Amino acid sequence: MGYKHTDFKYIDSHVHIFPTDIFKAIWKFFERRDENNKVQGWPIKYKLSIDEMISILKDQNVTHFTTYNYAHKAGIAEKLNEWIYEFSTSYKNAISFGCIWPGDKNRVEYIKKIFNSYQFYGIKIQPLVQNFYPFDDRMNDIYKIIVDQGKWVSIHAGTAPYKNKYVGYDNFLKFIKKYPNIHVIVAHMGAFEYQKFLNLLDNYDNLYLDTTMVFIPNNIFPERKVKQPNKDELISFQNRILFGSDFPNIPYDYKKSTEGLLEFDFDKDFYKKIFYENAKKIFKIT
Ligand SMILES: [Zn+2]
Question: What is the pTM of this model?
Answer without folding.
Answer: 0.97
